[in-house]
Amino acid sequence: MSEKLLLVNAVSSRMGGGLNDLVHTIPLLCERMQSEGWRVRTYVSTAGQRALGQNSTISVEVASAKTLRQRAIWETFTLPGIVRREQPNVVFHFSNFVSRNLPCPQMVVLRSPTFYSPDYQRLELRGFTHKVRQFLGKRIARSTPSRADATFCISAAQRDDVCSQANKVNRDVLVSHLGCEAPPESVASRALSFDERLNLASPPVRRQLQRFVDQKRNPNLILNIAHYTIQKNLIDLLCAVQQLVQSGEDVVLVITAGLLNYRGRVTSAVKRELDVARSLDGMGALIDLGSVSRQDVWALLSMADVFAFPSSVESFGHPLLEAQAMGVPLVASATDVHREVAGEGALYYELGNVTQLANQISKLLNDSNLATQLVEKGKSNSRTFTWESHVDDLVQKILQLAQCEKP
Hints:
alpha/beta, 7-stranded parallel beta sheet, 17 helices, globular
């Protein structure tokens, strides 16, 4: 029997959650497929190659697809040529799009919620380029389930949006939750002193947080980890922290959005966020770290007193599980996907209700019994999400598709 080939298209994974998924999924997938007698060839971006690092079990090729235009050309013209030449048994799109019909079965995992979510469509889009990208992306994305022989969503809430918004669905749309890694041993202990936890961070992050040590100040740290996009809904959290400061709570909000250095188009929504952020910064109640490394994510979680996740649109929400795994009390917006992922291990607030968010944060800071109960429930919940289970779902479907190859 000839060796089968799985071709993985992962060129869209370039930052944030996409890279996180890539580094946890691809090595496991290659290991499992190779044990089934398959070869796996993975096409990635330069960032994806760096994230995967040196791994002799992974066959990686870098695609020249840095810009949106280059990616469109690669997936529309280059990829079909590779498929004709290599004749893979299955093509797995580690992305949001299947742009062409191919002469072999195709499988896709949909990760971005923006092309299917009615809630996202109601948000204020920023600039002409973003609107054009969203318009074109939505057209391709909504036809993807009709081209794919198998479509995976990463939450049931996302599947509901996909099934209601897609132009046509060829097969059942499946759900496979992503996994959650355990915290590194170096940061897993919450018994470490603040100084010890601070030393776990990289020098740039350590310098920005050092001010508390220098001032002999011990504020409660409220943490949000997210890139700055409109659906992250930072305005709720900024205004809630402003209310807490005004009520006399000694709190500091730590974010990784890079909002204070924002250089994009300033819409009315962005201006409002900037105004509140600058006010909090002036009061010494905001630290905006900008983009941080994975090492820093765990170090920041080890220092946080409360993790807040006010996003209005998500397809999964990895930081929820990472906070739970780290034992950080959690408050999130009451969206279907957040309730699905975080379960009973979080407090929730209604989107836009800033006072309710401030009250939920205050409860977690001042009611140690409540915080402890949520932490225990959260740790238990996070352990139910494993990368092995996610990859098992993918492998099972790939093997099924290979048995019914297109003529």
